[in-house]
Amino acid sequence: MKLTLKTPAKINLGLHIHHKRKDGYHELETLLQMVSLYDELELESLTSGIELECDTPGIPTDDTNLAYRAAHLLQKTSKAGDRGVRIRLKKKIPSGAGLGGGSGNAAGVLLGLNRLWDLKMSRSHLASLAAELGSDVPFFLTAPCALGTGRGERLEPLTPSSKFQVLLVFPGFPVSTSWVYQDLKLKLTKRENNISILRKFLSQSDVARLGSRLYNDLEPLVIQRFPEIQVIKDQLKAHKAEGVLLSGSGSTVFGIFDDPEQAKTACAELKGDWECIVTETVVSFSEFLPEKVLAYP
Ligand code: C5P
Questions:
Q1: Mutate which of 69, 135, 175 for ligand 1 pocket (most atoms within 8 A of beta carbon)
Q2: pLDDT for 155-166, tens place per residue?
Q3: pLDDT digits 0-9 by tens, 280-290
Q4: How close is the Cα of 77 to the center of ligand 1, in Å?
């Protein structure tokens, strides 16, 4: 038996760091939004074992890959111990890009195997398992738009705004999340927490005001190390983005647009220098999950 499903990318419309915790993680508040750039997962039942294949060179296919670890976690924590899976992964979402591609893949494996192996686990049970895999994984099981607190794994689903356009610009190099957080501890200064304002403008679908308040506490540090990020931000602003920001720990910079034509024009202008993709915000799981997964169990 086989199952094919897509897994989306995410952006952080706001990311506020409170403090570093005793366990090494950072306590934060973040506004997470899925966007319509997808990887593809094909899951095929095997009698035992986990096999992972990926179409993109450089992506690990061993137990360091989150998709592999997600399958292993389900094998360990359920009656599925004697079941196996072959996972074929087609990557469209760049990795090390702050778009949560690997986390989305892991969430997709949890959702897909729950169905394929008929484990009957609820979405919230899967989300609690997902937190063991990474801070961003539970989001991909929870809602297209959510407020994340704790290390990002505690989620409050938000009503998505009307769709708007998100132009993703990938500078061509990855940024290591752990490097950013490690270096951050020395550089924290007093910062305003804008999350509730962002939340309000998002609920009003006010893209212009939302754009004017986008912010990310990790951004200054990443720009200092990779000045090209600032060049991309300036270009996006020059091409009429309502707001521009580094996503998560980078390296992707995104611009938000109300007008699809303007997003396309900006994309065409920036394409010569960087990899650019026009996406839109995702407002429902039904946009990318097959019915048999969506309605299960
Ligand atoms: O949870 P995840 O494995 O995705 O996190 C990757 C790294 O990012 C962690 O090892 C940690 O260094 C850092 N991190 C953090 N605080 C968070 C989330 C991630 O310090 N809230």
A1: 135
A2: 999 998 999 999
A3: 999 999 999 99
A4: 23
CA of 105 to the centre of ligand 1 (A): 17
Question: What is the Å distance from ligand 1's center to 74 Cα?
Answer: 22
- Give whole-number Cα distances, 274 to 33, 235, 248, in Å: 23, 11, 19
Give ligand 1 pocket residues (Cβ under 6 A): 25-26, 28, 134-136, 151-152, 177-178, 181
The yes-or-no answer on residue 6 being catalytic is: no
pTM for this predicted structure: 0.98
235 vs 191 pLDDT, higher one: 235
* Residues 155, 160: Cα–Cα separation, whole Å: 14
Instruction: Please state, in angstroms and rounded to a whole number, the distance separating the CA atoms of residues 6 and 66.
Output: 16
pLDDT of residue 193: 82
**Per-residue model confidence (pLDDT) at position 243:** 98
Mark whether 206 is an active-site residue: no
Of these residues, 6, 10, 39, 217, which one is catalytic?
Answer: 10
What's the average model confidence in pLDDT over 173-197? 84
**DSSP character at residue 281:** B
Query: Measured in angstroms, how far is the CA atom of residue 178 from the centroid of ligand 1?
Result: 6
Phi/psi-derived region of residue 205, left when phi > 0, alpha when psi is between -120 and 50, beta in every other case: left
Closest CA to 269 of 234, 245, 226, 229: 234
Closest atom of ligand 1 to CA, residue 17:
21
- Encode burial over 93-132: b for 16+ CB neighbours within 10 A, e otherwise: bbebbbbbbbbbbbbbbbbbbbbbbebebeeebbbebbbe
Helix (H, G, I), strand (E, B) or coil at 140: helix
